[in-house]
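FAQ

Q: What does a record look like?
A: Structure on top, sequence underneath. For example:
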């Protein structure tokens, strides 16, 4: 009903506004000519507020998101009584229980909806940073797209083999903007993460968006291994920070937290980046926080190629903005507030400028050129 109403109201508004992808922000300042348009404007704005849709989101994106949401709910309703189609068997055609069966799948990294991955990739490498290499300036960051998450839950085998594939094909930083609460083949993923460590590869993982306290509730992939009983030395778990200019706090109300797992915070509220079909838009989530940190890590590795993955991790963790008063409380849920030191191990938000300064100082102290 909401979708149909939004489409009908959109048709009325577009005729007068002459902008098929108007945003709520633009509509708020628009002065309607006729009564029908004026009434429709009020109804549209109330609907957007009720749905909790960001004011900067365009009309097309709103309809697409509603379509995707409805499709997911319809599939969920059908699956209560009907076994789901075995898409893995039909598409990947692998022997799932055999980790050595690695040559499956296809080279389609877009999937049915490439919005999330495109937004993440834009944050990781879309900002053009140039370094001078002998005779010319070059962009030091390159993207290797490895699609390991289908619509729905990711499989441990795909995650494990995706990590190994990236490592074996030259990746120096692996951004993992995904997660789940159950990992039946966790040893496969644990082994791949530690394989990456042996090959000097840094892994940056999003903490998740469920407002979980990760000190008491597990999400995966995890830096801790139940098999080897250790913590991965090459992995950073990132929570989402915000900005008082766009929200009421420097902490988001959706990010998972917990100083035993979450290392630091990175921007994750109303983040602008690339979308499919040469468009741009805002998204929220720790999925955005992770590639922002990955971008900063990539700059360090590009400017200082002799700095190892674990050294880059150390530099990142030492490069946080922290409140002057560490006892200050910030809301992590609607009814709970915590200190930044309780929200993350470092108790701070990544600072890119400070990171580069610390990398320069690290290089001087260790004579790395």
């Amino acid at each position: 009903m909401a979708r149909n109403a939004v489409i009908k109201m959109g048709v009325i508004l577009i005729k007068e506004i002459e902008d098929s992808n108007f945003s709520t922000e633009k509509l708020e300042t628009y002065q309607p000519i006729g009564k029908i348009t004026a009434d429709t404007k009020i109804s549209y704005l109330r609907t957007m507020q009720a749905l909790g849709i960001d004011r900067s989101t365009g009309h097309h994106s709103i309809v697409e998101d509603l379509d995707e949401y409805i499709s997911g709910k319809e599939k969920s309703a059908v699956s209560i009584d009907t076994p789901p189609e075995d898409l893995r068997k039909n598409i990947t055609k692998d022997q799932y229980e055999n980790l050595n069966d690695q040559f499956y799948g296809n080279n389609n990294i877009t999937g049915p909806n490439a919005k999330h991955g495109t937004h993440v990739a834009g944050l990781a490498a879309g900002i053009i940073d140039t370094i001078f290499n002998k005779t010319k300036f070059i962009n030091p960051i390159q993207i290797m797209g490895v699609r390991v998450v289908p619509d729905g839950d990711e499989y441990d085998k795909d995650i494990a083999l995706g990590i190994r594939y990236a490592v074996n094909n030259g990746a120096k930083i692996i951004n993992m903007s995904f997660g789940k609460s159950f990992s039946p083949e966790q040893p496969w993923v644990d082994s791949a993460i530690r394989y990456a460590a042996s090959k000097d590869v840094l892994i940056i993982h999003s903490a998740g968006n469920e407002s979980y306290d990760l000190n008491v509730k597990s999400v995966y992939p995890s830096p801790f291994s139940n098999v080897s009983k250790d913590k991965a030395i090459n992995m950073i778990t990132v929570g989402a920070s915000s900005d008082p200019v766009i929200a009421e706090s420097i902490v988001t109300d959706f990010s998972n937290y917990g100083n035993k797992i979450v290392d630091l915070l990175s921007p994750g509220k109303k983040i602008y980046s690339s979308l499919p079909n040469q468009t741009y838009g805002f998204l929220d989530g720790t999925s955005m926080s992770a590639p922002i940190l990955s971008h900063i890590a990539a700059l360090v590795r590009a400017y200082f190629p002799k700095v190892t993955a674990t050294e880059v991790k150390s530099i990142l963790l030492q490069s946080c903005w922290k409140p002057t008063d560490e006892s200050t409380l910030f809301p992590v849920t609607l009814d709970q507030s915590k200190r930044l030191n309780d929200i993350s191990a470092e108790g701070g938000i990544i600072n890119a400028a400070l990171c580069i300064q610390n990398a320069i100082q690290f290089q001087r102290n260790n004579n790395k050129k």
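Q: Is there anything notable about this one?
A: Residues 94-366 form a domain with the Rossmann fold fold (CATH 3.40.50.200).
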